[in-house]
Amino acid sequence: MQASKVSRRLKEATAPEVNEYIYRPRLQGFAEGFDLLGNINKAHIVMLAEQGLIRDEHAAVLARGVLKMEEAGPGEVTLDPSREDAYFNYEAHLIGQIGTDIGGRLHTGRSRNDILATLDRLRCREVLMDLIDALLEVRQTAVNNAEVFADVVMPGYTHLQPAQPITYGYYLSAVEQALARDCKRLTQTLESMNQSPLGAAAFAGTPFNIDRGRTAELLGFDGYLDNALDAVGSRDFMLESLSHLSLLAVFWSRVAQDYFVWSTHEFSLIDFPDSVAATSSIMPQKKNPTVLEYLKGRSGHIVGLLMGASISIKGSNFSHTGDGNREGTRGFWEAAEESLRCLKLLDLVLRTATPNIELAVRRAGEDFSTATGLADLIVQEADLSFREAHHVVGGVVRKAMDAGLLAHQIDTVMIDACALEQLGYPLNLPARKVRDCLDPTANVQARISAGGPSMASLKPSLLRANTRIATERHANQARRDRLAAAQERLQAATRAQAGL
């Protein structure tokens, strides 16, 4: 029987089932990680040569071989699952081009363990920057429409019951503010995880006098992980990122639920263009909120990926293991890809949703959501405690409902009647002030405290949001620029080593 293609320790060829169900699926992402693996190899070659760990003539051949593979692309590499994974297939192709003696020297002072750990950090770094950019786009859309609809009054809800009038712009401002925290969480993880594991070798370092700081610099890391065991044994940055994506998914699902309710025929507060809706195969009147249902459904899937990853990793040893570092982290890539799609769809929702302006303000004036404003007025004008005012207004609302009246039809006569019952004397409130506090537009604009929906509070909040987004966008682009500069330095050093 043919021996293993990657080890003389193993005297038998890999079982077909292992190839088919474990190793072959690992090779599906070979093209995606090809350039990153090439960068790791280039950084290692440059460092080995600079440290005198391989001869310059050997380093030149290695550098030219890797650059040639880079130019040819991943399609030129024949993938064989019996070689286990991307690294061994890459190495086999390189050795086939330049020979075993020189090609085999590339692996001096390192292990597949620290290579895989480095690959995960390089890939995760790119993904996190993409997610931050996507979040910034959604946040900007929310702020843009918050400015457009800043004065569109609508009912605000607690317990899905009419509570107090707000504006649609105020709601969008709240969405942006919550997404800003998701952005901050991902950014904090991005900044803390940008440390290189390369040079940790299997998990206990190497006797070769390598320069881990040099490879970290060439790959755009801020430094390297001090403990070699931690460097290869930990993927907490991926679990942390997956946790952030779960929080993000939970939030976008709540936003989708709001729009789901508001777009029903019964509410009719929000409408969507037909281009983002579906219909029924049997009921011709249907306009179904497909995008909202997708967003809500996928949030559960992402939370499930977090649970699966956590359970897989918790049972692994604190070292390099297949279940901890491969199987336990695969859900992150899926969650990140799904999150990028869902953020595009959330942006579509926020960009295309249109409030039914006249109906929204009318509902806010009819559904007693202005009642708190009346209680506030009583406190201000009649010098009552808020609890006493609350009881009076509760009685007024009850009488209005029993009489089939709407909120804006409440007058001073009704208020005085309830005050006599509750307090034993009328309040004699100014009729104009009663009308104003029960008017939803005036009610909103009266809420001038910081963070409220009035234009006096909302406009400065939106200005701060725009500044915040611009600052974060610049910071993320600066990260990309720094990494691009590191890539240029790496390429120049490799070409110089190759004598090109």
TL;DR of this structure?
It is built from 20 helices and four strands. The chain has 500 residues and is mostly helical.
Describe the overall structure.
- There is one protein chain.
- The chain has 500 residues and is mainly alpha-helical.
- A hairpin with a 2-residue loop joins strand 1 (153-158) and strand 2.
- Helices cover 66% and strands 3% of the residues.
- The protein is elongated, with a radius of gyration of 31 Å.
- It has three domains: 16-108, Fumarase/aspartase (N-terminal domain) (Fumarase C, Chain B, domain 1); 113-151 and 167-207 and 227-354 and 462-488, Fumarase/aspartase (Central domain) (Fumarase C, Chain A, domain 2); 371-438, Ribonucleotide Reductase Protein R1, domain 1.
- It has helices spanning 16-26, 30-50, 56-72, 86-98, 100-103, 112-148, 168-193, 212-218, 228-233, 236-262, 290-314, 322-327, 330-352, 357-366, 371-382, 386-402, 412-422, 431-438, 440-445, 455-498, and strands spanning 153-158, 161-167, 270-271, 354-355.
- The model has no long low-confidence stretch (mean pLDDT 90).
- The longest helix has 44 residues, at 455-498.
- The chain contains 20 helices and four strands.
